[in-house]
Design brief:
The chain has 10 helices and no strands. The chain is mainly α and about 240 residues long. Helix 1 packs parallel to helix 9 and helix 4 packs parallel to helix 8. The radius of gyration is 17 Å and the shape is globular.
Length: about 240
């Protein structure tokens, strides 16, 4: 029963991931942590992040903005490892709650009063660094990355595919760490095997659904997800 419930949550989360290019793991994580345990869930979602996001990116390579992908990865990867280190040397519970509040505020503000201006270039670099740091500390830097990507990637297809390429690489790095720590047990590999066909269906379904969403609604949906992620962090963090 636990695995069935997790698979249902996984399918929903990864359909959202295929539509927007982010938010899959953060939505699946609380359910998985409750049903499968933290280490097993992280290992499963890292593996599936590589598979599902990689599938989406590889089948849409022409939509990848390689220049922005390089910038995102070069900054986020460095700060992600800093965040992983910080997670081992200091308590971060309060900071996680604060991060949730910030995301709720950002999501609500952009839904009630859409942004008309742009952040300066230096501020975007700071946002990108913070996205990597938060990814390393809480495995949830996607919401901040979206703030950067919304300004840099105006086309929704380019937006979701470039972000998918980012998660392919970062999840691979996490998966390597989890493998070296021995988290890929027989039970975990069984869940991964069950998730693979669901990830394929979710990717196809999400890709079809996003084509029916206008650019304006896509942007609103993105900020709704940021608001939901913030609320989720406040409740479960």
């Amino acid at each position: 029963m636990e695995k069935a419930l997790f698979l249902a949550a996984f399918f929903f989360a990864y359909t959202v991931q295929a539509i927007t290019g982010f938010a899959g793991n953060i939505f699946a994580m609380p359910v998985g942590t409750t049903l499968l345990g933290l280490e097993s869930t992280v290992a499963v979602l890292n593996a599936m992040g590589v598979f599902a996001c990689g599938l989406l990116a590889v089948t849409n390579l022409k939509s990848v903005n390689w220049r922005e992908l390089g910038k995102m990865l070069s900054v986020m990867a460095v700060f992600m490892f800093v965040g992983i280190w910080l997670d081992t040397v200091m308590p971060l519970h309060v900071l996680l709650k604060l991060y949730g509040v910030v995301l709720v505020a950002i999501g609500a503000k952009n839904l009630l009063r859409p942004r008309t201006g742009f952040l300066p270039e230096w501020a975007l670099w700071v946002v990108l660094a913070l996205a990597g740091l938060i990814q390393g500390m809480f495995v949830s830097g996607g919401a901040l990355l979206v703030i950067y990507a919304v300004q840099k990637l105006r086309d929704r297809q380019q937006f979701r595919i470039t972000l998918s390429a980012v998660w392919t690489v970062l999840n691979f790095l996490y998966a390597v760490i989890a493998f070296r720590q021995g988290h890929y047990t027989g039970d975990v590999l069984q869940v991964v095997a069950l998730c693979i066909p669901l990830a394929v269906v979710a990717t196809v379904l999400g890709s079809k659904l996003q084509k029916r969403i206008s650019q304006e609604r896509f942007l609103k949906f993105t900020y709704v997800l940021i608001l939901c992620i913030g609320g989720l962090l406040l409740v479960t963090g």
